[in-house]
């Protein structure tokens, strides 16, 4: 997220203002990676990267090799 913010030449204060997320929350997120989902979504929209959420859960979960083989047979 820091890289995205810097790509857009935004300071933490500017991003906080545009996103509506407090500066303290933004700093905590950048330093400790702790943030509410609501604030994360607000920041994503402010940075124009809300489409990145589409890939968040895009990869299927396989618990075993048998799950992988079954998915392959189904054509997934």
β-strand amount: under 5%
Q: Gyration radius, to the nearest Å?
A: 17 Å
Distance between the termini: 31 Å
Largest beta-sheet characterization: none
Low-confidence stretches: none
Helix/strand class: mainly alpha
Summarize model confidence as the mean pLDDT: 92
* Shape, principal axes of CA atoms: elongated
Helix content estimate: 55-70%
Number of strands: 0
Order of helices and strands: HHHHH
- How many H/I helices? 5
Short description:
With 76 residues, the protein is mostly helical. Helix content is 58%, strand content 0%. The mean pLDDT is 92.
Topology:
Elements: H1 2-7, H2 12-19, H3 23-32, H4 37-46, H5 65-74
Keywords:
5 helices, single chain, 76 residues, mainly alpha, 58% helix
Structural features, described:
With 76 residues, the protein is an all-alpha fold. It contains 5 helices and no strands. Helix 2 (12-19) packs across helix 4 (37-46). The longest helix is centred in the middle third of the chain and has 10 residues, at 23-32. The protein is elongated and about 50 Å long.
């Amino acid at each position: 997220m820091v890289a995205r913010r810097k790509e857009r030449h935004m300071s933490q204060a500017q991003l906080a203002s545009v996103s509506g997320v407090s500066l303290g929350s933004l700093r905590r997120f950048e330093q400790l990676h702790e943030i509410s989902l609501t604030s994360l979504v607000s920041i994503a929209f402010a940075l124009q990267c809300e489409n990145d959420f589409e890939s968040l859960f895009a990869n299927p979960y396989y618990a075993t090799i048998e799950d992988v083989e079954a998915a392959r047979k189904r054509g997934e």
